[in-house]
Amino acid sequence: MVAPLLAIKAYAAAQDIGAAGAAGAAGQTAGPDFGHMVSQAINQVATDTHNAETQITNQVQGKASLVDVVTALSSAQTSLNTMIAVRNQMIQSYQQIMNMQI
Predict the structure, then answer these.
(1) Burial class of 12 by CB neighbour count within 10 A (0 to 12, 13 to 18, 19+)
(2) Which burial class, exposed, middle or buried, applies to 48 when counting CB atoms under 10 A from its CB (0-12, 13-18, 19+)?
(3) DSSP conformation letters of 6-40
(4) In the structure, what pLDDT confidence band is assigned to residue 22 with cuts at 50, 70 and 90?
(5) Angle, nearest 10°, between helix axes 66-98 and 34-60?
(6) pTM score of the predicted model
(7) Distance between CA 69 and CA 77 in Å, rounded?
(8) Percentage of the chain modeled with pLDDT above 70
(9) How many CA atoms lie within 13 A of 4 on its CB side?
(10) How many CB atoms lie within 10 A of CB 53?
């Protein structure tokens, strides 16, 4: 049951990142600024990781339930996996551009 919730959260986060970028790019003809979107995604990974660490600490102190810890860890893992996939795609795209004939 956790997977659908994570998918919904990831979809909502992607929409928020895109909407924030689109609002800032009103003067541009293209979509949102790619650098800004990547920066926000990296910040989201850091936030999710910090939240997971906080939940683990709270669980050790007896202040949080195990469900909260598992949910926070799953969210952090999903965010990190998404960033790794984006990084891999960026590297692959860069390599394709570098291999193009001029």
Answers:
(1) exposed
(2) buried
(3) HHHHHHHHHHHHHHHHHHHTTTSSSSS-HHHHHHH
(4) low
(5) 150
(6) 0.63
(7) 12
(8) 72
(9) 1
(10) 13
DSSP code, position 100: S
For residue 20, give its domain range.
Answer: 2-98
Structure tokens at 91: 């590297």
Structure tokens given for 21: 């970028």
Contacts of 33 by beta carbon, 8 Å cutoff, 6+ apart: 21, 24, 25
Separation in Å, CA 7 to CA 3, 41, 56, 67, 78: 6, 15, 22, 17, 9
Domain count for the chain:
1
Please tell me the distance from the alpha carbon of residue 89 to that of residue 52, in angstroms, as a whole number: 26
